[in-house]
Amino acid sequence: MPEPAFQDYYPENVSHCYGCGSLNALGLRIRTRWEGDESVTRFTPRPEHTAIPGFVYGGLLASLVDCHSTGTAAAAMYRQEGRAMDTLPAYRFVTASLHVDYLAPTPLGVELEVRGRVKRIEGRKVVVEATVSALGKVTARGEVVAAQMREGFGQV
Amino acid sequence: MPEPAFQDYYPENVSHCYGCGSLNALGLRIRTRWEGDESVTRFTPRPEHTAIPGFVYGGLLASLVDCHSTGTAAAAMYRQEGRAMDTLPAYRFVTASLHVDYLAPTPLGVELEVRGRVKRIEGRKVVVEATVSALGKVTARGEVVAAQMREGFGQV
Q1: Domain interval for residue B108
Q2: Where, subcellularly, is it found (chains A, B) (predicted)?
Q3: CA triple A9-A11-A16, angle to 5 deg
Q4: B-chain residues within 8 Å CB-CB of A26?
């Protein structure tokens, strides 16, 4: 059985996200794991995730960087505290800002690899750098400032 | 009949984009028009575009800002040249970089308004600022550097 992903530990109320929620049947349902000090998500875009025919839509790449990075932020916070991800209180992060530089067209039809590194942790904020690669070449580079979700967020 | 949108003038080969392509049946198919000096896209996210239940997924907001801004860049270039969008050569822009600041949770279930302004045109690059509003409140602010697509892009 494969090692659980960060997203497997998300509480039910934060498992509906279009990008990473295991309960969103129409979403991307990305899964992220540590590989040493880097977090890794592998995802194959769907045919409709087209920009120009044959190339991946930039908004999809931004979405991958976004959820990959908020997941990495949560996992990094557990790591910093020496806690397993199935212990309470649960950490969950939202995106404060997202930046993506598109370096080269990303081919559609192959598995993409998103790799993240924690740049710094500042109180309740975690800054994550990420790259997106296709066929071994980095095609996009992103940075996300993830903020720990406050209690009661989304309880309207 | 409503005024045509920028996207109605896109050549067929760039009408497959997940965000703005009229030929992408599964995509967002956003439509953008000038209102004075601002470009405006109105879009109601689908139920699956969830972050936390009741709120819009940040990756979707990034996607709206992205395609809204590349469309605005193209329209701005025609305007600068005093040309109608149905004249040749056709302008089409790709995203060089995308930045989004998430200012407040964006409620799901209402129409969003994306408003863009051209910040500057530098040769083949157009910098577009955009806001996303829900119920009259700005919830996200973005900036896109759009680059004029080179001849032959996507012809592999």
Answers
A1: 6-148
A2: Cell projection, Ruffle membrane; Cytoplasm; Membrane
A3: 105
A4: 48
In a domain, B118, yes or no: yes
Residue A1 lies in a domain: no
Give the separation between CA B47 and CA A65, rounded to whole angstroms. Answer: 22
**From the centroid of its chain, how far is CA B27?**
13
How much is the pLDDT for A12? Answer: 86
Q: Does the CB of B98 have a partner CB in chain A at under 8 Å? A: yes
Three-state SS string over B85-121 comes to: CCCCCCCCEEEEEEEEEECCCCECCCCEEEEEEEEEE
Q: How much is the ipTM here?
A: 0.94
CA distance to partner chain B, nearest, from residue A40 (Å): 18
- Residue B110 per-residue DSSP state: S
Please say if A101 is a catalytic residue.
no
Task: State the total domains in chain B.
Answer: 1
Any idea how long chain A is?
Answer: 156
- Assigned domain for B33 exists: yes
Query: Residue A59's domain is classified under what CATH number?
Result: 3.10.129.10
Name the residue in chain B with its Cα closest to that of A141: B97
Whether residue B140 lies inside any domain: the answer is yes
pTM as predicted:
0.95
